[in-house]
Amino acid sequence: ATTEIFRERTVRIRFPALNSEAHFIPGGGLDGMIIAGGKGDGRPLAVAAVVGFQRAQGTIWDMPADVSTLEASEGAPRSRSEVLRACQSLLDETLANGLSRLSTANQQRWATLAVSTLGVNLPRLALLLRGIGDETALVLSRDARSDLARTFGRMAQAHALCTALQNGGENPRTDLVGLHRTRYDEVGHLDLIGVAAWPWRTASGYEGLTVLFWDPSAKRWNSWTESRPRHQLADFKPTARYTQPGPWEGAESPRQLARSSFRLMNARCNPGNRLSSSSKSRALVTGQAKLDEQGLDAIKDWSQLLQQSNTQTAVGLMETNPLDSVFALKPAAWGERHYDVVTQVFAWALSDSQQRALIMELGFDEFTEPAIKFLENVTPDSLQGALIIGRVQRTPRGLSLHPYSIHQQNGEVVHLCLDNLNSISAEAVTAAEESEEGFDEEEEAESATVFSPALSRALDEVDDGLLALAEAGLAALSPLRIERVRQIAPRTERLGLQGLAVGLGNIVAHPDSCTVLRCSYLSQLHRRAMPLST
After folding, report:
1. How far apart (Å, rounded) are the C-alpha atoms in residues 74 and 170?
2. Which residue stretches of the chain have pLDDT < 50?
């Protein structure tokens, strides 16, 4: 765990993620160390404190990298290597036939392979394969949420993950293997502030409600989520759950907690800062949420927002915490706003003190409708000095903000999609989002400061050309589609994308699914890496 070291009259070593700290008393040794916060045996924390302190002094501690990695199940019908080969084979067969010829058999095979992958303890790959199966089901049902480009992108990610696992041999990296179920640790008592709440629905068919909290002591976000798969929804409605009792004893409802300061006693939290609904936890509301007075430093300079967003951008197969994309912003001025009837997107320009603009955007759907109506009618004067809590995402035009809540100067808190439902059906649901906790996957585009139109256009052409090959199928290629890829390759080489140019050249010479998927994944990596290039 990350440590914070304070040298006072004694040495104090804090573990923010565990809400615990160790006090070292000179001459007391390990037995004299005082462990505060958390629950259970404090001896592991004492050892962790010593290791953290020595690391801070420059001592190198090489911990075993794979001690917690899930091992392959001995009783599984197939070995890990066989399952990984089967995955690569299905990817190859699907691209050979073409994405435009997906069938029910494809969807069933992806679902079956996901189960087999779970059987050999590869939960991260299993989740990805299940997602491909869900995407295939959307395509087959001609659902409006279906997207062949997204399906193809997930297939490229699955190919990259399979390849990395195969290259890892008997001991692949722990983060590539994943975990079957997140672990919740007892972290003692937490003093939290309700910040935002929003309902959501994933493309794979989950619906839920997420409430966001600020921990002023650890200076980090925490979240609580309740969700259901759509086929198990029964009477569960995210908007209705917002006003129902819980999630902990002592709480009137998530609506109350989302605008209050409270102490969560006997809290349980996972490594992603997600709070458990454990019946052992209890909430004690202590007052209203007043973020300006309770240690939340809002970002007022959009260049600072860009820097923080860039440091949290993951490239490759590294996983990130969805909470890292949430920020509190305080605009200096609220500019022009409009609703585009063609794209059905509401946009409002927010300026910082240097007159730099950040676009706040909300796409219209049956759930964001009340939020858009509120933002269209609210007077800009009433929002002066207000804080906005939202998710920062990347678009081809740069950074944009998807808002969740507004904290006004007079203390009023507005959770945009939930507090404006008077004229909207309580059964409304959000737009498709890409994570079970109500966050989209980070958009694979560049930021405004380092945006390169030429590079972006080249990557767009690469993606379009590869998708055209994938849709038509590699078994019977059209010379026109190959010629299109041939024309793109020199342009990518001139822009310095040497690996991508070589891959495109290989597709022209010997088109196969492995090279097509690899080039698609390389294009994704370049998009993610663009904001980090300066």
Report:
1. 13
2. 65-67, 423-450, 534
Going by their DSSP bridges, the two strands 398-407 and 432-433 should be labelled as: unpaired
Tokens encoding 179: 């975990």
Q: Which secondary-structure segment (H or E) carries 304?
A: helix 302-311
User: Token pair 């994944």 is at which residue?
Assistant: 521
Task: Tell me the three state secondary structure of residue 277.
Answer: coil
* Rounded Cα distance, 491 and 494, in Å: 5
Q: Which two tokens stand for residue 13?
A: 């070593």
Q: From CA 235, how far away is CA 216, in angstroms rounded?
A: 36
Q: What is the pTM of this model?
A: 0.73
Question: Distance between CA atoms of 17 and 458, rounded to whole angstroms?
Answer: 42
C-alpha–C-alpha distance, residues 457 and 51, integer Å: 49
- In a 13 Å sphere around the CA of 100, the CA atoms on its Cβ side amount to 9
Would you say 335 and 349 are in contact if contact means Cβ atoms under 8 Å apart? yes
SS3 478: coil
In this predicted structure, what is the pLDDT of residue 533?
54
C-beta of residue 138 within 8 angstroms of C-beta of residue 203: yes
Strand intervals (E) in 247-332: 260-269, 282-288, 326-329
- Model pLDDT for residues 399-418, shown as the tens digit of each residue: 899 999 999 988 899 999 99
Count helices and strands (H / E) in the chain: 14, 17
Cα separation, 166 vs 160, in Å, equals 10
Which positions ≥6 away from 7 have C-beta within 8 Å? none
Beta bridge partners of 414: 406
Task: Please report the DSSP string for 105-164 in residue order.
Answer: HHHHHHHHHHHHHHHTT-HHHHHHHHHHHHHHHHHHTT-TT--HHHHHHHHHHHHHHHHH
Task: Using alpha carbons, select from 505, 501, 508, 495 the residue that is nearest to residue 522.
Answer: 501
For the four alpha carbons of 366, 368, 370 and 372, in that order, the dihedral sign comes to negative
Rounded Cα distance, 465 and 463, in Å: 5
Distances (CA, A) of 441 to 294, 323, 374, 438, 445: 30, 11, 26, 10, 12
Report the relative pairing of strands 260-269 and 185-202 from DSSP bridges. Answer: antiparallel
514 SS3 class: helix
pLDDT of residue 427: 37
Give pLDDT, residue 359. Answer: 94
Is the alpha carbon torsion for 168, 174, 175, 179 positive or negative? positive
Structure tokens at 272: 């992603």
DSSP helix/strand/coil, 373: helix
| Residue positions counted in the chain | 534
Cα(336)–Cα(135) distance, rounded to whole angstroms? 37
Report the amino acid identity of residue 356.
Answer: R
* CA atoms of 407 and 291, how far apart (whole Å): 8
Going by DSSP bridges, is the β-strand pair 34-36/20-24 parallel, antiparallel, or unpaired?
antiparallel
Residue 494 burial by Cβ neighbours in a 10 Å radius (0-12, 13-18, 19+):
exposed
Q: Would you list the DSSP string of 24-37?
A: EPTT-TTTTPEEES
